[in-house]
Design goal:
- The complex is a heterotrimer.
- By secondary structure, chain A is α/β, with parallel strands linked by helices.
- Helices cover 44% and strands 10% of the residues of chain A.
- In chain A, β5 and β6 form a beta hairpin.
- The radius of gyration of chain A is 26 Å and the shape is globular.
- By secondary structure, chain B is α/β, with parallel strands linked by helices.
- Classes of the chains: A alpha/beta, B alpha/beta, C alpha/beta.
- Chains in contact: A-B, A-C.
- Bound molecules: iron/sulfur cluster.
- The site of iron/sulfur cluster has 16 residues of chain A, from α14 and α16.
């Protein structure tokens, strides 16, 4: 999406008072809830430290842990597949579905499947895909993408949802009662669960030690998708692996506490194998698709690597002042599930589509967001665009003026002022500071502030008159 | 052998610069509250998540269950006949099933049981313990007590032995030796199914049970 | 050629001075104070001097380099930053900065910006000396303020960098709270950005405008007559929006506010 399109989207989003109210309310609630569960600052710091250490340990042994995960899943009877790209991952999923001659698939919320554009792909191949998370179900009915990774339909209010249900669900009456809307979804989706040939889910943590897939959810649709259909396909980004089962408790607390302000979600699923002999339910086949899609490239970059610690809790979205004004759709990709660059949700939602500096403390939450260093900025600046590693190379200074979306305005001032090494920038050298340099003093000589020289005193200024207001 | 996606991905990861692993964090060692404290904490947390908790004793739990069933008047109750819990229920119903829901046994594979499963009104299961600090039941379904029992019917009654309430999930994992013996599926359940996907308004039973009733047997 | 090595370091600490107080300190003026709020800079310096600490203002200083840095031009930012490394004598005296944003850039980003560069060690020493003005006043000098103004209700805006990067808000508010006749009413959404964001305000004026509108609403809801801040970027943005709406609320840099309240003491 070009900058003009983004600006247009922004304009539309800002003009949509309903949308702005929906987001402001929802994000405010999330922030408050999260604060409520993490009220003990010392304990929270400890937990964050713990979570970060665990995730960093994972990254320090990522290839080995993935192999261990594969070995233990395989031993448990889970079939493991690897995909370098979304196209390959989609193909793998379709092959499994076709092998079982299934035509209907039920899906739990999975951001990696959003990243893959899996639904569109399967539908193109004649497979009916039913999103079963209530929020996902709503936006699927309306042909939209999620606007938030935790609450995908948060941009809609109940009147809008009432209309969607009434128009798109056969036989659904128009109702604005949330209870009744839920009942409509329950009735519709129960039938789909019972009839589906394949269930697809994401993975929150995959435990290498035991070959266990951990999924958190509140609705029970995840349990349905992973228990009722005869085949379960789980898709995950390769960063989801964790070392040990014992790592789960702190990570779960961080994830659910941050994502929804809960001590624990209603359900925490631990899936370690397909149905075993003598068991009466559960899928007879479980598949795990491990997707790379640029993650190994991110991993290879020491500056960006920490973004693979992200657990997709969505907190950075809730705190991002830009996101909370314009919502998730204006960006043209799903923040946190971007096919082009699978980065944390808040990674490109801020000013200039970088993490907003307000998110610095969240970095320490689990280190999902990188420091704001020149590296990432350089990667984002069009005149120096060189991929994620571009910023590390010593590149020629941009000669042409920066493009409008990258480094206009104040940024350009500094760029155009760039002097030959060792010399002050021309404009700055002629700026007010220089005029005030001590007589004969080379720049850098001490100027022990003669009273009244560098800053004009205003002894008679009326009290409380800010400089700006005088203008 | 041709190079696979797996090999290429792993090769890329292996060729990336290595970082030293930070030490694993110290496991949290808090002093676990006494049993009564754990029961209280669990009760508070579960109730906060709109579960119904009833405390009873080994001698009285069946009476408590029967009282609950009479009170609520469900017409059918799904149970697992091969478990001790199931045996006790069968026994009690044989003595006096008057005014009690008809028992439905989950005794065959889902493939032939699906239709029936979706029509029962309530189900009763045992539990493998609970976690007090976050407030969650530990379910460990198996061949005798299948997974869908606690998921499909609109009401889930769970019977929990008080001694199996652990202070934390860490404790439960350690004491139960989970890492060495993971079953097909385990699930932590902290309340009835819920969603807040419409205007963040909490609503219950969107997919799983609308009600979770926990009988704590002391 | 121009490599001020700053070897004319004064005895530090001087014996006739309170050994806890540095002598001298250097002052980094910042572009925005220079261009829009000169009296804030002047007040900041006078308040330090009032505590018996000589202030030196190296003439070669200009901009901390943040605009280029934030726009993704590290090479250009480094060149501007290098000017600052050269402008300040390489001694141990604190470099006091009346802005959380510029201080954050110099303290937290210079070391990374010069990593692997010939000036790395110099940048690290420099960064270690940078201190935000309110922190310097409250924590290093332990100033005690005597309020001479009339009763006044104010609110405080925390800039993102002062709050998150420099972590100095407690010091800034602490100074205000020392003023006995000033009532400080906090913002409901104090932790939220005002929408300035440096180049962001220029690149995305619509979003920036939405943010500052909300910020002004929040300020207005406190009933304060004045909004005080420690960063002139925010102040410029906020007071602009206030003026645009014709509201009777004044914006002021913390240093200027304190000078005004305690003048002559
Ligand atoms: S970057 Fe951090 S805050 Fe954002 S989703 Fe990831 S873990 Fe959560």
């Amino acid at each position: 999406m070009g900058p003009e399109e983004f600006d247009r989207n922004v304009e539309l989003a800002l003009a949509d008072a309903q949308l702005r109210r929906n987001f402001a309310f929802a994000m405010g609630s999330f922030i408050a809830r999260r604060q409520a569960v993490f009220s003990d600052a010392a304990q929270t710091e400890r937990l964050r430290g713990q979570g970060q250490a665990l995730k960093r340990r994972v990254l320090s042994r990522l290839p080995e842990l993935l192999e261990e995960l594969e070995a233990n899943c395989t031993r448990n009877g889970i079939q493991v597949h690897w995909a370098e790209t979304p196209a390959v991952a989609n193909r793998l999923v379709l092959d499994i579905i076709e092998r079982h001659a299934a035509t209907r698939v039920v899906k739990g919320k999975s951001m990696v499947s959003e990243e893959m554009h899996l639904n569109a792909f399967l539908e193109k191949h004649g497979v009916e895909v039913v999103e079963t998370d209530l929020g996902e179900f709503i936006i699927q009915l309306n042909g939209e993408t999620p606007s938030h990774i935790i609450v995908p339909a948060i941009h809609k209010n109940k009147q809008q949802i009432a209309r969607i249900f009434h128009e798109k669900v056969p036989g659904a009456p128009y109702t604005e009662e949330v209870e009744e809307l839920n009942a409509i979804a329950r009735a519709t989706l129960r039938r789909k669960f019972a009839e589906a040939g394949v269930g697809i889910s994401g993975v929150n943590f995959a435990v290498a030690e035991t070959g266990t897939l951990c999924l958190v959810e509140n609705e029970g649709n995840g349990r349905m998708c992973t228990t009722l259909p005869p085949v379960h396909i789980a898709v995950m980004g390769l960063e989801k692996v964790v070392e040990k089962l014992a790592d789960l408790p702190p990570l779960l607390r961080l994830l659910t506490g941050s994502a929804t302000g809960q001590f624990i979600t209603t359900y925490v699923n631990l899936i370690s194998s397909p149905r075993r002999a003598g068991e009466k339910d559960g899928p007879t086949e479980v598949h795990l698709v491990i997707l790379d899609n640029g993650r190994s490239r991110i991993y290879a970059d020491p500056e960006l690597r920490q973004t693979l610690q992200c657990v997709r809790c969505g907190t950075c979205l809730n705190h991002c002042p830009v996101y909370t004004r314009i919502g998730g759709h204006a960006y043209g990709f799903v923040p946190g599930a971007d096919r082009q660059d699978p980065q944390p949700p808040g990674f490109r939602t801020g000013p200039g589509r970088r993490p907003h500096h307000g998110l610095e403390p969240l970095r320490r939450l689990r280190g999902g967001l990188p420091r704001q260093d020149p590296h990432h900025r350089a990667a984002a600046a069009p005149a120096q665009r060189g991929g994620v590693t571009g910023g590390r190379e010593r590149r020629a200074r941009p000669r042409q003026p920066p493009q409008p979306n990258g480094a206009a305005g104040l940024g350009r001032v500094a760029v155009s002022q760039h002097p030959p090494a060792g010399q002050p920038p021309a404009e700055l050298a002629a700026g007010p500071h220089r005029q005030r340099a001590a007589p004969g003093g080379a720049p850098g000589a001490l100027d022990p502030l003669p009273k009244g020289a560098p800053f004009r005193p205003h002894p008679a200024a009326p009290p409380g008159e800010g400089d700006r207001n005088q203008r | 052998m041709t190079e696979t996606a797996r090999d290429r991905i792993l090769a890329r990861l292996r060729s990336a610069p290595r970082e030293e692993a930070p030490r694993p964090p110290e496991p949290a060692i808090g002093t676990a509250p006494e049993l009564s404290g754990r029961i209280d904490q669990l009760t508070t947390r579960l109730e906060a998540m709109r579960a119904v908790v009833r405390r009873t004793t080994a001698a009285l739990w069946l009476e408590a269950l029967i009282a609950l069933l009479r009170e609520r008047g469900w017409s059918t109750l799904l149970y697992a006949p091969e478990t001790p819990l199931g045996a006790a229920i069968e026994n009690a119903w044989a003595q006096d099933g008057d005014g009690l829901p008809a028992l439905v046994a989950y005794a065959e594979p889902i493939e032939s049981f699906k239709e029936r499963l979706f029509t029962v009104e309530a189900a009763i299961t045992s539990t493998a313990g609970a976690v007090a600090d976050t407030g969650a039941l530990i379910l460990r379904p198996d061949g005798r007590e299948p997974r869908l029992m606690s998921l499909v019917p609109p009401v889930h009654v769970a019977v929990l032995q008080a001694q199996s309430i652990f202070a934390t999930l860490e404790d439960a994992m350690r004491a139960g030796g989970w890492a060495a013996d993971m079953p097909t599926n385990m699930v932590l359940v902290s309340g009835p199914s819920k969603t807040a996907d419409i205007e963040l308004t909490l609503a219950f039973g969107v997919h799983g049970p609308k009600e979770l009733i926990v009988l704590i047997v002391e | 050629m121009r490599r001020p090595r700053g070897r004319q370091r004064t005895a530090f600490p001087r014996k006739d001075q309170n050994p806890l107080k540095p002598n001298p300190v250097y002052f980094f003026g910042t572009c925005l104070i220079e261009s829009f709020f000169p009296r804030a800079g002047e007040a900041a310096i006078r308040l330090i001097e009032r505590e018996g600490v000589p202030v030196r203002f190296p003439a070669g200083q200009s901009c901390c380099g943040q605009p280029a840095y934030n726009s993704g031009y590290p090479d250009d930012a480094r060149a501007v930053a290098r000017q600052q490394l050269r402008a300040f004598p390489d001694d141990e005296a604190p470099i006091v900065v009346p802005s959380g944003s510029c201080a954050g850039m110099m303290k937290h980003h210079y070391p990374g910006l010069f990593a692997g560069e010939p000036d790395q060690a110099l940048a690290e020493r420099f960064a270690g000396r940078v201190v935000e003005w309110s922190e310097f006043m409250a924590a290093r000098l332990g100033v005690e303020l005597e309020d001479r103004g009339a009763p006044l209700k104010v609110t405080w805006h925390s800039s993102c960098h002062a709050m998150r990067e420099m972590n100095v808000i407690a010091h800034s508010k602490g100074l205000i709270r020392q003023l006995s006749r000033v009532e400080l009413v906090e913002l409901a959404r104090e932790r939220e950005c005002c929408g300035f964001g440096g180049t962001f305000a220029v690149k995305h004026p619509a979003i920036s405008g939405a943010l500052v509108t909300d910020k002004v609403d929040d300020i207005r809801a406190t009933g304060a007559e004045r909004v005080i801040a420690g960063d002139c970027g925010c102040l410029l943005n906020i007071t602009g929006a206030i003026a645009h709406r014709g509201l009777p609320i004044r914006g002021q840099h913390l240093a200027e506010f304190i000078w005004e309240r305690t003048h002559g003491s």
